[in-house]
## 1
Amino acid sequence: MKQSVVVIALFAAVMAALPGFLGDNPYIADILITILMMASLASAWNIVGGYAGQFSFGHAAYFGAGAYTTSILLTTLNPGIPVSIAAGVLVSCVIALLTGTIVFRLRGHYFALASIAVAEIVRLTVLNLDITGGAQGILVTKVSFGSLDLNSKVPFYYAMLFLLLVTLGISALIYRSRTGYYLLAIREDQDAAASLGINLYLFKNIALVISAAIASVAGSIYAVYISFIDTSTVLPLRLSIEIILTTIIGGIGTLWGPVLGAVLLVSLAEALRSNMIGEYLVNTGMVSEGSATGAFLKSNLAHAHVLVYGIITVLCILGLPKGILGFFRRKGEA
Amino acid sequence: MLFFQSLISGILIGGVYALAAMGMSLVFGVMNISNFAHGELMMLGMYMAYYLFTLLNIDPFLSLLIIMPLTFVFGYVIEKTMIDRVMDHPSENQILLTVGFGLIMSNSALLAFTSDPKILTTSYSSSSIALPGGISVSIPMLLSFLVTCILTAALYLFLAKSRTGMALRATSQNREAAQLMGINVSRMSAIAFGTGTLLAASAGAMIAQTYYIDPFAGHIFLLKSFTICVLGGLGSVIGAGIGGIIIGLAEAMSSAYLSSDWKDVLVFILFLAILLLRPQGLFGKKGEQ
Amino acid sequence: MKKKLLEIISLSKHFGGNTAISNVSFNVEEGLIVGLIGPNGSGKTTLFNCITGYYSLTSGSVMFDGHDITRIKPDKACRIGMVRTWQRVKPLGNLNVLENVMIGAFSKTRSAGESRKIALAQLDLLGMSELSSNTAGDLPIGLKKKLELARALATSPKLLLLDEICGGLNNTETLELMETIRIIRNNGVSIVFIEHDMKAVTGLCDRIVVLKSEQKLVEGTPSDITGNHDVIAAYLGKGYKHA
Ligand SMILES: Nc1ncnc2c1ncn2[C@@H]1O[C@H](COP(=O)(O)OP(=O)(O)O)[C@@H](O)[C@H]1O
Ligand SMILES: [Mg+2]
């Protein structure tokens, strides 16, 4: 526990100082914010998926519920950012509890399936309602928070960093508490866990609600950050899957795995999207620009990041089922 | 009249849902795996039908004769090379593997065919039979329903009468016992996955005239198939058949009497309601958890 | 007359058309070790599953410490002081031995430090201290069974339900374990003990219940049982010699 506190504090110090070194390059800032956001989402998912072993395939629902609730409030009643974020958390927790209440009585594949169904219900409902702007989405403008300049990326960097630190803190606390041990027991064997006095239903719901609340805050911050949301940016199944992949690739069930996964995957996606990899292959002469392969790679690699995710996932599951960190983790460190 | 029109459309589309869901249910029953790449396998069938028609001018229903063996082999090989290796892993790993495989398929399709939706138009694509009372029955949907009935009957006979079919059912009932009885359960898994792939791709090929064909077209059918499988009792092939018709009807009725915007929502709410009230499915045996 | 801790009253359990247990009744008095024996498939494990809430009963009822617990949930069963082990062991495979036992101990304390203390003491009692940091899933079967016991004990139960805990142990180890179980009993824990090893059962138990073909065949002291012709014919068979 003490060790985790020290590492988290070090990480906080380095990350807090980072913008000072990088200057205000908006491109880099945007990537860093995305990394922090995916790290928070993956860490949040890790609490219910990695610790309790309950794979949610619908975390976009909580992210989106936060984003939408906050945006709607800010553009209508405008009760201020903190209240709008809190309202988002409330909505997400209600959705999480409804889901958990229905499916956590069941074992096996049901939670995975039901979590997708709930996420789709949320997405389609948002798409069909008027208050959410339907397919048009919501433009979140004229938002202010004290004297902060919300046109700058800096406040959002620190907001996401703060969220990530809180998430890591919560994860570390849970991991070493009775709740954490109970979640691990549930992951390992539900019958055994119940025979040792663990209320499976209660603890799975606790894990899901904590996780949903964090994802919701990430959604709220994101909505204010990009000032425009629609269902394809904050509620797609693709996002739910990316959150899982980030955790798996970094190391499921570990404190730092989700962070590592976010750094790797966001950077990789960015490198592909900006065609850095395609150009690198051509520039280093590994493939010639004139050749068919070269032309194909250069025009297509930019769209291939999800394909690459897919390949990495398959290789990870077949090769190292515990993820990169899980693979190297010392066994038995109680 | 609206009622009868919806009834007929619901049953016709329900047949295709049923076909896709039966493939998923078979895989689930025999292998105890939720196949998240099932929608992509349907997408594969859609593109195969599209290109066989546009390049070789083969009618989509005739092309089933080519698509079925090819996709069976494809599924068989995928099972042998990938899924077989995670058969004794936790179910989350199996799910993720199929998710990853699905992403590879859909995004490869994206690179190969771009995201522009394709439309398969045959001479009879938009023709329909007019029944008394102003009810119209789309010819392609009617044909798909008939072919679905034939395939379902064939699947039923295969499972009920053939040696392999019986071995599949035995494996589905109790994998360990089947193994003890000398059934090669690993081969059964591959056959089940091959057959599941074949059924999904056939369903895809048959609706290729009715839906836009794009790399992510299978997505919505994945969720529908899951709903149908749970409705019919996970692993019950017959249950999936009936469940498909029920979902088709529910959709058609809700489009007619509520609004088509909400029909998918209704399907998923139905799904949750089943989990809450009757998790073993409408036709599953009530047993110990 | 000792207080009845567990009362099983006309318990029956059917699986579809199959009867696994038919109208079985017996009591477990406080401070006793009750042996439960019977051929394979006679319903012993099913009985545990019914008592602890993993299966719902077809008919009958169960009382624990004077309360009706017929429809109890498994976790509640543990919290009121009745804990079971699994014949098909269920280690928390990726956790280490200490963590496994700590999870049991958490039913009595919320503090991780406290539960670690309880767990370490429990492992010490069973002579498993040096295994603390071994991964539970990697233990040999005999030790996994012992871990089942350690974990269950860490919940400080009033009643311990042991399902073939000696499997995978050699003779000396079995004798040692019997001794440990006697100590546990002397510390005030009542025990129901399913076992195949007749020597273990007759040597250890105060009373024995014999199940046969889903029904209770007879119940009595070890000497009653070993002298009973029905039992000898039905269960003990030729292999068993009078001690
Ligand atoms: N979940 C179950 N479903 C169906 N039958 C079961 C189930 N559990 C146990 N049985 C049946 O109950 C009977 C008793 O089994 P069991 O309690 O394991 O016996 P024992 O522990 O005495 O060897 C057996 O015939 C077994 O097949
Ligand atoms: Mg048994």
## 2
Amino acid sequence: MQYIDNIIFVILLGIGIGYFTYNIKKAIRNVKLGKPSNRNDRKDERWKNMLLKAFGQQKMFKRPIPALLHLVVYLGFIIINIEVIEIIIDGIFGTHRVLHPLGKFYNFLIGAFEFLAALVIVAVVIFWIRRNVLKLLRFQNPEMKGWPKKDANIILYFEMVLMSAFLIMNAADYKLQLLKYGHYYFKEGIVGGFPISSYLISFLPDNVQSLVMIERGAWWFHIIGILIFLNYLYFSKHLHILLAFPNTYYAKLPPLGKIDNLESVKKEVQLMMDPNADPYAAPPEDAGEPERFGAKDIFDLEWVYLLNAYTCTECGRCTDVCPANQTGKKLSPRKIMMDVRDRMEEVGKNIDKNGKFVDDGKSLLDYISKEELWACTTCNACVEECPVENDPMDVIIQVRRYLVMEESAAPSELNMMFTNIENNGAPWQYSQMDRLNWKDE
Amino acid sequence: MSNELKVRTMAELAAEGKEPEILFWVGCAGSFDDRAKKITRAFVKLLNKAEVDFAVLGTEESCTGDPAKRAGNEFLFQMQAMTNIEVMNGYNVKKIVTTCPHCYNTFKNEYPDLGGKYQVFHHTELLRSLLEEGKLKVEGGKYDGVDITYHDPCYLGRGNGQYEAPREVLRQLEIDIKEMKHHKENSVCCGAGGAQMFKEAEPQKEEIFVFRTREALETQPKVIATACAFCNTMITDGVKFFNKEQEVKVLDIAELLEEGTK
Ligand code: SF4
Ligand code: SF4
């Protein structure tokens, strides 16, 4: 029976990592529902972009206060997770503080982790206050009601609890070392640095049995918490912790003003402009189904935009700077990204259930209204602002393309503008013959 | 004196067997809108002063297709683009200058892939070089004591990263720009882009041009400088909204420079 702990540990670890892998595979499958995307050019720039924007969080620093807090949580989390390596080894082999022979360096590490843990707690508390007490405007939009709001808070509680567990574990351990109890006692003396948790020991009981219970409890809590956290990611906006890296690699590179020319239209236009082409020629036999112009559903978007949707942190920076949203219109670029994700997950569940996608009579247009779509000025403020380099604007344009070219559903004033361009070569009703009148006025 | 513009068309030059160094693409607003036509004329005066060898397409010019593209009508955009490219390639155009950031962006980024490869300049870029080369000479002190702020057009600034050329021209005029709270990459749209110019706004609290002009007015300017005819229209409307048209002028960089050069 002495290996029961180790066995339980290994089983939990297996389940945790297994379920995580299962969900990540699902996410990859869903992203691949999109159309092919040609983002393999300019590799050097892409690597650099990833390094600066994902690793260096460059865009966050446009707003220094949240940037600093976020950096603390991010670094704290990554660095403290080094400790998880030791936890895993200890868990599997039933050792205790297996890395302690690193000596002074080990003490330094544990001490540094404690400082970071305390800083993370402080940062997370401030984050919580910003969201729930100060009610920062960008967290109050309609799309942030319900789950998105809960999601954000759940993660904050998670981080507080995980960091507290780490500190309590250390405090109990330290006290047991001081009491020279059992295997907690090392003949080298005190092992580990406890700059923060040493202040907590007076709150702990003096009874060694209770201390061991607390130490073991916190230890299990910490590792199980991390496994739950890992598996929570897939269901949360916190997927960005992982996806920010590929997302910034495949992001739209400058110039932001450029919008790709639609290939399927190119073919048709070339045919129309070619004086030798036979306008009545039947399409070639192998042409297959003609490609849809623009995007009606997630299948019509290139996969990069689906990756964007999974990576979206729901931070609302895009919406915060959107001129349409700031002047009280319904359009919110964050909601556009969230809609793409919601629809993608709906399609994913459909596939899980039926083995393949069975038409459910729905599309992206059930999520995004025309009122939102037509309010965009294509100003690129959202794209410029997004810390993970998402491109909500292009999604808007692609759905507009569908509305205009497949459904002829543009607002009537825009149809008038199109007619003017077609007939007089200007968006207004002026004759092309008057184009040079300014010269003599 | 306003009738002294020297403007040739590509067709006239071609008939003489000549090619100009650069094509001035006037754009729809610059050709038809009363306010924008003044900007066109100011820019041509500058080109004349600097003796730039240029021509326009005149009646052969047509919309670049930008508003159609941004409104989702890719078909119409590409038809326009192909037609324009045919005309320009027919005249062997190598360089284009335009006062419209939308035309500029379209030529620069979206035409090459359709067979239209040109060296493209925004008028503020060309004006900056003309000043640097000494072809235009600033009359000092013209704007002493005149507070001026500058509004970045989306398709020049964020769209193409050109924040400095217009500012450099203003600096050459010895203008100390009073920047708005949001400027350069954080600038706020005037509300015209993405084909919004051609339709009513969706239900809203206020117009975007009001929102943007409020911030411009906070700098207490005498002049709000623009570099796009559409921004000019929008911000002029904004100034009217605040009943400030007596105190605050909305002028294009070309107009400011035209006034301020010998
Ligand atoms: S591009 Fe459209 S969605 Fe994005 S900030 Fe500008 S108006 Fe808003
Ligand atoms: S798209 Fe970008 S800026 Fe907008 S909410 Fe998502 S992560 Fe934030």
